[in-house]
Structure to design on (812 residues):
């Protein structure tokens, strides 16, 4: 064994020596001429091979990673020494000490060359290293986060769910503007600082480890604290990736500290470099002009403009003039939720749960009841359907999820709703917290009506539609599976599932119901159903019920100041086996976090596809409320509506079916192109969220530039990716006003759910103006007193009737 080991070691040594020789040959053969600019004495950032030219930008700062390449090129004699002295030496003050300015103020720019190059006391570069690390530490303390900022990944992904990467830095150290707008901590930056401030860096790495920012392969690449990069309610996001070059730099830095600078000693021992080491011993200039502008701007920006969170919509009441909606989707499975808790669930063109457009009641959708078993008092996790007023009620619509918070009788409930990008499911995570001073028994009951056919077919004849639905209870897994029997060979058989997973230490047995009549009871409504009046378990009926629903009930015991989580998942699959597999999958409590994280990431990717911001998305969500729920605020005046004498068939001559909601955009001036872009972008947003809308653009320009205006519109449509949807159902229809008769113009305005005109300002201004011009109906003031009628004398009982009951009878 010893002989074999020695032979293998010899082979490995020979291989390493061969690799070292090859590396040396490659280093000596390195060409710099095609990157070197002889007039500027600087290296270009890159070279465009296809156009055979250098890039127009250059490495022109001493405080950058490029000084390593510049030093080696000078030592090899391939670049003159003027290149070193042509590197910029802009100085600023950090912690009372002079420091070289870099481009982005990142730890990588300052310390990466130090991994192999030596440093010398009382020199400009050595002072820069120490001041840069001190500035990073101070900046982290001011922000209240661990320090260490450099170029790294951050919590944004592309369409393939790959993390994005860019340089981050400390304001005041970098020339780049907007550095204070991000807060991304890279652990490898602290590892680099081990070469300069080992004690402080080691303490910071311990803090990062304490907070769980380390995985199986070392520290994760970054921790993103930027509010604009985070889902609502989250303080940070861990970028769970590992980059080999960041790990390699960390290992070299650790070797610098523990092994007494081995790489630097090798660097100094190279004869070729020894003659050039004087370049690294540049003294701190005694008199120089300090560059103060960047420091002042960055610090002012940091103090005056803190990191902004992403825009969200918050409603503290369910009783808004029109239901406010949030659209959630993964491209196939679509969910709409209102601020009162109503809404629908759809898969492609199939309605999963029953919904009707009802802006007054808004009592259709998937619901959850909460009941205190001791008192029998019950309420909903949202406002619908129990209609119980809460002391504290809040609806939060952020991109990728909808949330409801309420406090009732000492119980806090927090409901989060999201659609998984991985599977065609929606998850409702309900966190129940006992804020009272006694132990409470809480009962949770879910409810939804099954459809599994198109919305139109269900609306035409829901009773007939219900006859084809069958239900099955899987008690061992806490789930209900339903399917629709095909009416013909060509019909596709669909399956849906509904599962409740209760994560609490003390919980009861689950009960189930699939018969709506048994759940609601005779003469009752969802506001107070029979199932919530009784403390008995649900009946457990299943099979071919006349009116199918899915309802699951379970109780939990909560000690004071303790919480329990209930995950209610509804989804759809093409086979029974797919549904049972999804049931098993989403009973895992840890998958809930994954669903919400991926839903947020998917929403960011979607916005990037249409070049929209989250502010735009919130605005388009507000406008969607007026599409789903007809309201007079954005419609034509009643004086115009009564003029219409034509029917839906008139729209057919313009290739518009009239079966889908219509948004009418009236444009007159090409200076209002921003409004057109927003409406076209909103149409793409709604389509991706599963909301089909016909956008009709009416060109009302009467000048000679009508064709120019039309070309601009078509260009915006093509840029938005909707060019294949022009003149198709759910698409965009561009029509000139002179091609529409006066009578037809009336019907266009009559059927439109919303009319947007470019002369009325931006879309935000028009949305904010809603309701201001509406007439205020005065309160009823009675003009006369109510007169009580004198009591009438009761009629005498009749003796000539058979079977008399005091009111009537039968003549003999």
């Amino acid at each position: 064994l010893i002989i074999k080991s020695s032979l293998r070691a010899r082979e490995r040594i020979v291989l390493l020596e061969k690799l070292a020789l090859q590396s040396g040959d490659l280093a000596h053969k390195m060409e710099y001429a095609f990157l070197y600019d002889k007039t500027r004495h600087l290296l270009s950032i890159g070279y465009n091979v296809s156009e055979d030219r250098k890039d127009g930008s250059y490495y022109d700062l001493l405080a950058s990673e490029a000084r390593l390449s510049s030093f080696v090129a000078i030592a090899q004699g391939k670049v003159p020494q003027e290149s070193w002295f042509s590197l910029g030496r802009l100085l600023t003050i950090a912690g009372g000490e002079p420091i070289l300015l870099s481009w982005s103020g990142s730890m990588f720019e300052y310390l990466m060359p130090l991994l192999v190059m030596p440093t010398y006391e009382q020199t400009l570069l050595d002072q820069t290293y120490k001041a840069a690390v001190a500035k990073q530490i101070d900046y982290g303390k001011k922000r209240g986060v661990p320090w260490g900022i450099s170029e790294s990944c951050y919590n944004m992904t592309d369409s393939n769910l790959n993390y994005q990467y860019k340089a981050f830095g400390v304001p005041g150290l970098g020339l780049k503007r907007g550095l204070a707008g991000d807060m991304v901590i890279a652990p490898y930056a602290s590892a680099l600082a081990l070469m300069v401030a080992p004690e402080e860096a080691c303490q910071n790495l311990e803090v990062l480890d304490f907070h769980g920012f380390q995985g199986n392969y070392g520290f994760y690449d970054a921790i993103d604290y930027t509010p604009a990069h985070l889902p609502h309610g989250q303080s940070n996001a861990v970028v769970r990736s590992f980059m080999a070059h960041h790990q390699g730099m960390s290992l070299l830095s650790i070797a610098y500290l523990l092994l007494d600078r081995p790489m630097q000693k090798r660097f100094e021992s190279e004869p070729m470099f020894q003659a050039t080491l004087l370049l690294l011993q540049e003294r701190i200039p005694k008199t120089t002009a300090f560059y103060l502008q960047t420091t002042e701007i960055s610090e002012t920006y940091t103090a005056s403009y803190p990191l902004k969170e992403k825009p969200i919509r918050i409603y503290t009441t369910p009783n808004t003039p029109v239901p406010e909606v949030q659209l959630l989707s993964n491209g196939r499975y679509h969910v709409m939720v209102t601020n009162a808790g109503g809404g629908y669930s759809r898969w492609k063109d199939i309605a999963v749960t029953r919904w009707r457009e009802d802006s007054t009641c808004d009592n259709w959708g998937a619901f959850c009841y909460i009941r205190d078993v001791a008192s029998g008092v019950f309420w909903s996790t949202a406002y619908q359907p129990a209609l119980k007023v809460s002391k504290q009620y809040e609806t939060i619509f952020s991109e990728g999820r909808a949330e409801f918070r309420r406090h009732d009788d000492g119980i806090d409930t927090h409901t989060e709703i999201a659609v998984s990008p991985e599977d065609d499911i929606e998850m409702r995570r309900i966190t129940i917290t006992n804020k009272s001073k006694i132990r409470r028994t809480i009962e949770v009951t879910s409810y939804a009506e099954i459809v599994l056919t198109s919305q139109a077919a269900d609306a035409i004849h829901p009773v007939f539609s219900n006859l084809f639905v069958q239900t099955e209870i899987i008690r061992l897994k806490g789930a209900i599976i339903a399917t629709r029997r095909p009416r013909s060979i060509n019909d596709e058989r669909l399956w849906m599932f509904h599962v409740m997973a209760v994560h609490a230490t003390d919980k009861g047995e689950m009960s189930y119901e699939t018969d709506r009549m048994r759940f609601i009871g005779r003469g009752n409504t969802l506001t107070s159903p029979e199932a919530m009046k009784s403390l008995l378990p649900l009946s457990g009926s299943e099979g071919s019920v006349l009116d199918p629903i899915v309802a699951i009930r379970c109780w939990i015991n909560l000690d004071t100041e303790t919480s329990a989580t209930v995950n209610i998942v509804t989804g759809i699959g093409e086979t029974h086996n797919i549904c049972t597999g999804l049931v098993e999958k989403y009973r895992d409590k840890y998958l809930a976090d994954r669903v919400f994280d991926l839903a947020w990431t998917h929403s960011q990717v979607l916005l990037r596809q249409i070049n929209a911001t989250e502010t735009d998305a919130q605005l388009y969500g507000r406008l969607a409320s007026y599409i789903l729920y007809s309201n007079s605020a954005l419609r034509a005046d009643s004086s115009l509506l009564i003029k219409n004498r034509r029917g839906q068939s008139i729209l057919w001559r313009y290739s518009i079916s009239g079966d889908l909601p219509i948004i009418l955009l009236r444009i007159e001036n090409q200076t209002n192109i921003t409004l057109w872009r927003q409406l076209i972008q909103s149409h793409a947003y709604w389509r991706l969220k599963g909301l089909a809308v016909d956008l009709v653009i009416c060109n009302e320009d009467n000048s000679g530039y009508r064709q120019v205006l039309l070309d601009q519109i078509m260009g915006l449509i093509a840029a938005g990716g909707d060019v294949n949807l022009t003149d198709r159902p759910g698409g965009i229809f561009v029509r000139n006003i002179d091609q529409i008769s006066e009578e037809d113009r009336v019907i266009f305005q009559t059927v439109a759910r919303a009319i947007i005109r470019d002369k009325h300002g931006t879309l935000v201004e028009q949305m904010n103006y809603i309701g201001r011009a509406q007439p205020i109906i005065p309160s009823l003031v009675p003009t006369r007193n109510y007169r009580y009628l004198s009591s009438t004398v009761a009629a005498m009982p009749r003796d000539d009737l058979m079977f008399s009951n005091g009111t009537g009878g039968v003549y003999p």
